[in-house]
Amino acid sequence: MPKIDVIIPAYNEEAAIGKVLRAIPKSLVREVIVCNNNSTDNTAKIAAANGAIVVLQPEMGYGNACLKGIDYLMQKPISEQPDIVVFIDADYSDVPEEMPDVVAPIINNNMDMVIGSRALGNLEQGSMTFPQRFGNWLATSLIRWIFNYHFTDLGPFRAIRYPSLMAMNMEDKTFGWTVEMQVKAAKMKMNTTEVAVNYRRRAGGKSKVSGTIKGTFLAGYKILWTIFKLYW
């Protein structure tokens, strides 16, 4: 089996992070890194109690948290660095038990990156707002029109080969993280695919993106800006 590590960006997810960690298939994953993004609750304490490695990222931003997790992996000796990295959210809206399906195309079919597509799976009622669904459609349509790569979602649940991730030189610090990864995969002509994943309402708390009008607007703006920045 390849060495598979999981990165989970987390900000004030004490109601959900324990559920996420307990649901991750232990036989599949070597290590789970929870990137505590300046939480003011017990997220870090609960994550550590459930066996995760907790790294601290005081600078706010989804991308910042993911970059901190990558930095942790890069500090390992080369022989101990992972073969595959999985990203999943901390709010228990993704289904960790589906992780074998997400990594399977990399292990079995020589894919570089796999997106867990909520558009292809089942959405629990109320799990995604209309602006989220429309934004995903618009962003993936632009990627298809501009780069001729077909995606149906910018879902946070994804797996990527570690060397491919390193080659991307990821930079975005906030809401453009997922789309940056997909656009760079398209520009670099990586082998990508999607698998259907299910999606449910978050386990407590408020979404940092869709929970407010401001968050929704800023996320949409950053996603579109990232696509055109990387194009030009």
CATH topology: Spore Coat Polysaccharide Biosynthesis Protein SpsA, Chain A
The CATH architecture would be Alpha-Beta Complex
Q: What is the CA-based Rg, rounded?
A: 16 Å
Total number of domains: 1
Low-confidence sequence ranges: none
Describe the structure concisely for a colleague.
By secondary structure, this protein is an alpha/beta fold.
Describe the protein's topology.
Elements lengths: L3 E7 L6 H7 L7 E6 L6 H7 L3 E4 L5 H13 L9 E4 L11 H11 L3 E5 L12 H18 L10 E4 H7 L8 H11 L4 E5 L16 H19 L1
Parallel strand pairs: 1-2, 1-4, 2-3, 5-7
Antiparallel strand pairs: 4-6, 5-6
What can you tell me about this protein's structure?
The chain has 232 residues and is α/β, with parallel strands linked by helices. The protein has one domain (4-231): Spore Coat Polysaccharide Biosynthesis Protein SpsA, Chain A (Alpha-Beta Complex), CATH 3.90.550. It contains eight helices and seven strands; from the N terminus they run βαβαβαβαβαβααβα. The chain has helices at 17-23, 43-49, 62-74, 99-109, 130-147, 162-168, 177-187, 213-231, and strands spanning 4-10, 31-36, 53-56, 84-87, 113-117, 158-161, 192-196. A seven-stranded mixed β-sheet has the order 3-2-1-4-6-5-7, with helices on both faces. It starts with a strand and ends with a helix.
